[in-house]
């Protein structure tokens, strides 16, 4: 049986481990973000004709959900999207460029409710890295139409579930990420990113992008429950952004 003190220490061990999880996750996010910035700036300094850019705009997002065999998609909600990117031609005169795009993005969904006095929504936040290959259609005026695609990887940032009832203060609840039944969603997300747009000779551009999540965000412990084994939740989002690509310092 053991003495009461040792039993108490063993009982507290899981709680202590759980309390360390947010710190571990925070460190992983910081390492990921720092690594991305290092990659972008080091590539920009080494690669010939590489150009750094900044972007910002709006995201129209939703969660594609199937719960208990029933489609339970919400309504699209508007969020912010913005960050920095790199445009690296594969060779000097190639129309194809490699375009890593690191951004902060707001996703989630607005819940469909029967009463107009209640508005609930899921506000997800991610640090997202898309790595696209882009084909540039140069025109005679010096501008460029472009079209591309590639995978994306996203790490969750602090996110909230929001409940707004008319005449009352809104209620914010932290979203829990992980694979336990008590968690709301899995943490890391990944999928495909598609981009298109127009960039003028000065480097100013307007672009559209669509992200389709490939990972089922339902926690594994929930999927282990027979009644929930076919549940699915995936991110989808449409974005519209404006941005600017700085001129390359490389000699032509």
Structure description:
There is one protein chain. The chain is α+β, with helices and mostly antiparallel strands and 252 residues long. It has a single domain, classed as Porin (Beta Barrel), CATH 2.40.160. It has helices at 4-46, 220-223, and strands at 51-67, 70-71, 77-89, 96-110, 118-138, 144-165, 171-174, 189-199, 204-213, 232-245. The chain has an eight-stranded antiparallel barrel. Strand 5 and strand 6 form a beta hairpin.
Annotation keywords:
19% helix; 8-stranded antiparallel barrel; single chain; 2 helices; 252 residues; disordered N terminus; Porin; elongated
CATH second-level architecture: Beta Barrel
Tally of domains: 1
Order of helices and strands: HEEEEEEEEEHE
Strand order of the largest sheet: 1-3-4-5-6-8-9-10
Quick take:
The chain is of the alpha+beta class and 252 residues long. It is built from two helices and ten strands. The N terminus is likely disordered.
Please outline the helices and strands.
Elements: H1 4-46, E1 51-67, E2 70-71, E3 77-89, E4 96-110, E5 118-138, E6 144-165, E7 171-174, E8 189-199, E9 204-213, H2 220-223, E10 232-245
Antiparallel strand pairs: 1-2, 1-3, 1-10, 3-4, 4-5, 5-6, 6-7, 6-8, 8-9, 9-10
């Amino acid at each position: 049986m053991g003495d009461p003190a040792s039993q108490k220490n063993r009982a507290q061990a899981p709680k202590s481990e759980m309390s360390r999880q947010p710190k571990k996750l925070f460190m992983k996010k910081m390492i990921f973000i720092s690594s991305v910035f290092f990659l972008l700036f080091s590539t920009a300094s080494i690669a010939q004709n590489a150009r750094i850019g900044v972007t910002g705009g709006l995201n129209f997002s939703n969660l594609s959900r199937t719960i208990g065999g029933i489609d339970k998609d919400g309504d699209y909600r508007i969020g912010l999207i913005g960050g920095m990117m790199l445009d690296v031609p594969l060779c000097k005169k190639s129309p194809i460029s490699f375009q890593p795009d690191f951004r902060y993005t707001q996703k989630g969904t607005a819940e469909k409710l029967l009463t107009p006095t209640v508005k609930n929504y899921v506000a997800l936040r991610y640090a997202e890295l898309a790595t696209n290959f882009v084909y540039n259609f140069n025109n005679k005026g010096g501008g460029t139409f472009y079209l591309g695609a590639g995978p994306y990887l996203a790490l969750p940032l602090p996110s909230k579930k929001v409940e707004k009832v008319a005449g009352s203060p809104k209620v914010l609840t932290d979203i829990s990420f992980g694979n336990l039944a008590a968690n709301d969603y899995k943490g890391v997300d990944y999928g495909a990113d598609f981009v298109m747009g127009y960039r003028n000779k000065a480097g100013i551009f307007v672009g559209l992008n669509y992200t389709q999540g490939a990972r089922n965000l339902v926690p594994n412990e929930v999927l282990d429950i027979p009644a929930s084994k076919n549940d699915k939740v995936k991110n989808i989002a449409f974005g519209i952004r404006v941005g600017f690509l700085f001129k390359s310092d490389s000699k032509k």
